[in-house]
Amino acid sequence: MEEAIDMTATIVTIGDELLIGQIVNTNASWIGEQLTLRGVDVIRTVTVGDSPSMIKDELGRALENGRIAILTGGLGPTHDDVTKHAVAEFFGDRLTRRQDVLDAVEARFASRGIRVLDVNRDQALAPESFKAVVNRAGTAPALLRRTKTPKGEGLVALLPGVPHEMKHFMEEAVLPEIETLGEHGAIAHRTLLTAGLGESLVHERLAGIDELLGDDVSLAYLPNIHGVRVRATVRAATAEEAERRRDEVTVWIRERLGVLVYGEGSDTLEGALGRMLRERNYTIAVAESCTGGLVAHRITNVAGASDYMVGGIVSYGNSVKSSLLGVDATVLAEHGAVSEQVARCMAEGVRSALGSDTALSTTGIMGPGGGTPDKPVGTVWVGLALPDRTEARLLRLGTSRLRNKERAAAQTMNELRILLGEGA
Which of 46, 51, 234, 238 could tie 246 with a disulfide, CB 3.0–4.6 Å? Predict the structure, then answer.
């Protein structure tokens, strides 16, 4: 196979507000995704404060190790916006006023009846070796410079930190410029979403995959509260070759993980469950105690859930379990609210009360208190009522109340998804 040409990038996001958490840094992830889709390998992302020395250090490191450096933030009109000054110093440039940028800034302020200040006019200043692209959605221009790097001809792009302005410049100026840097191969990703097993057990299921991996094919395990995302990445000279090999790897993974896989990419567990219910023309109802309505919330997050979601009952107290779900008081007294018997009765009760084909129930001890030696914090029973039978599952979770609620809701939906996948 022809070797893919090396095209690597560093993303530098700039601003004290990012470091102290006042603003969530969404720019780096969006830029990284767009570059990857076009075959550019993002090797590093870093956030620095409004420090000229740090900006110059990171720019130097980026150009030493790759061919593309994209910097966002610090291009505004105030004293803490130092990016273009730092970059001008890095390249030994002086700042020059760009008349087309100044005209656009003045026209923008005039259209709003606002007086233009000198600091606003200074937004038309740019390092002399950079091309300035007028901002139609704000005032700070994008600044682009082709440059030589140890790995070949490269690009430095300075973009505003405002997300919608940054995205416009990426799509209209930066990405087209990258395309002119020459052939740089292709990267293909696919992320399989799993639920039901942890990272180590998923890895065990994929024993033998090392034979498929190498410098051009990699696999990442990304655990979350639902399970594990398994991401395959393939680098190749052409998009066709990258996609072909990616498909081979993901078919191999699917064959070994089977029902553990509930979707790909941006799919959700509740969306996967909803599709299965719709395919079978089944409706669903939920009876929740320990999850307090979270299962119903998740199910109804899916557009069109009214096709299959009948309703739910939050039966937090035992009196509600008895009066609305028909759980016999003697069952509660003998086995306790957190028990297999009560979970089954709750699921059957809500299915009967609301007239659904299937039903889910949750009852457990979320913590931090309330546990006993026999039923410690994190003990959850899940009821699964199907058209022809009722089953129950025992979950052993942790000690964090909120995480327990989230994990219980996810695992409850996943248990029904698996049952339906087995032909229930």
Answer: 234
How far, rounded to the nearest angstrom, does the alpha carbon of residue 347 sit from its chain's CA centroid? Answer: 33
Which domains are seen in the chain, by residue range?
8-179 (3.40.980.10), 186-264 (3.30.70.2860), 269-416 (3.90.950.20)
Annotate 212-257 with three-state secondary structure: HCECCEEEEEEECCCEEEEEEEEEECCHHHHHHHHHHHHHHHHHHH
Please tell me the distance from the alpha carbon of residue 151 to that of residue 171, in angstroms, as a whole number: 24
| Count of alpha carbons within 13 angstroms of residue 414, beta-carbon side | 23
CA distance 179 to 393: 53
**Residue corresponding to tokens 């150009």:** 63
pLDDT band at 411 (very low <50, low <70, confident <90, very high): very high
Which pLDDT belongs to residue 94? 96
Mind listing the pLDDT tens digit for each residue in 142-161? 999 999 999 999 999 999 99
**φ and ψ of 16, to 5 deg:** -60, -35
Q: Which two tokens stand for residue 221?
A: 């395990």
The gap between the terminal CA atoms of the chain, to the nearest Å, is: 46
- What residues contact 225, with CB distance under 8 A and at least 6 apart? 403, 406, 407, 410
Eight-class DSSP state of 27: H
Peptide bond into 127 cis (omega under 30): no
Average pLDDT over residues 371-389: 96
Which residues sit opposite 218 in a β-bridge? 233
Q: What are the pLDDT digits (tens) for 156-196?
A: 999 999 999 999 999 999 999 998 887 667 888 899 999 99
> Are residues 415 and 393 in contact, defined by beta-carbon separation less than 8 angstroms?
yes
What residues contact residue 348 under an 8 Å CB cut-off, 6+ apart? 359, 383, 385, 390
State pLDDT tens for residues 20-29.
988 889 999 9
Question: Would you say residue 276 has pLDDT above 90?
Answer: yes
